[in-house]
Amino acid sequence: MNTYTQRSQTVQQQSAAGSTTSKNTAAITDNRPEAVAQLKLKSSLNETCTPQNNVVQLVKSIKKKKDEPKIPGVTKTIKKRTKYREGQHGYKKSEQQRLKKLLGKAVSGKTHQSEHYFGFAALNQTSGQSRKESGAFERNAYAYQEAYQSHRDHVGTGSSKQIGPTGLSSETYRNDTRMLLESGDVSSAGQLNTLGYAFQPDFSKRAQTIAGQQASNSFTHMMRGMDSVSYMQGNKQVSVPVSDYDRLEQLAARYAVERKHSWPTDKDIADAKKALGML
After folding, report:
1. N or C: which end of the chain has fewer CB within 10 A?
2. Which ranges in 28-129 belong to alpha helices (H)?
3. What pLDDT does residue 278 have?
4. Domain carrying residue 121
């Protein structure tokens, strides 16, 4: 008998002996109290650890947390994201808060009004929709916080047909704004709005007040983010691109009017470039 055969027989004998021992062991019942308790514990643990029971326990845990009583005075703060950005009409409330923090004076409808830089009536002229129906479009339009009385005195506010110091009525002002936008001349359309403030006798004086400084800062922030202007042509939006030079012209013109200059000075232009990050 060779070595391989001897080893095979030895393994078979050990396997048979082990099988007999295992059967005999399984047949023996341990009725001691501590053994019975241990068996029950193992059975319980095995049952709890199944995937199905894990899911059940997780659901119960979540439900329990939901049912827990709220602790008085403790609230979870959720920061609400706004879908509008600086310079848009829909950003008005956030812009008012920003200006308050900037100069320490509250901004509300009593101190400022939202100035649609390109009159909304001009932008929405051919849509065939009411202002209410065009709410979403209006909230995305460019606007800034202008000092209350200055805005009230502007030719574009209201619907008067009376010709003002600018040589325009509210109707011709909107028509001219629309015509300039359709021709692609965004800068001139915007400066037409600024022209309405240039002819107000007290505008430059108001511009030096805190409310006026807040308005100037709001205008500057609007101009920084202006990359295109949209108007309605029937039921479609038409967008006109705004170049760096367009932004510079409009901001320099605003600074000139605030400082009572007949024409933008070198300083007005330099300050506008700095504000726009062009220096």
Report:
1. N
2. 33-48, 51-67, 92-103, 120-123
3. 96
4. 89-275
Assign 245 to helix, strand or coil: helix
40 assigned to some structural domain? no
Whole-angstrom Cα distance, residue 233 to residue 237?
6
**Is 270 inside any structural domain?**
yes
Highest mean pLDDT among 7-16, 154-163, 264-273: 264-273
Instruction: Check residue 1 and report its DSSP letter.
Output: -
Spatial separation of the C-alpha atoms in residues 274 and 190, rounded to whole Å: 20
For the whole model, what pTM was predicted? 0.70
What residues contact 111, with CB distance under 8 A and at least 6 apart? 105, 147, 148, 211
Phi, psi (degrees; rounded to nearest 5) at 31: -95, 10
**181-231 per-position pLDDT tens digit:** 999 999 999 999 999 999 999 999 999 999 999 999 999 999 999 999 999
Q: Helix, strand, or coil here: 203?
A: helix
Q: How far apart are CA 24 and CA 177, in angstroms?
A: 102
Structural domain includes residue 39: no
With respect to residue 256, please indicate whether it lies within any of the assigned structural domains.
yes
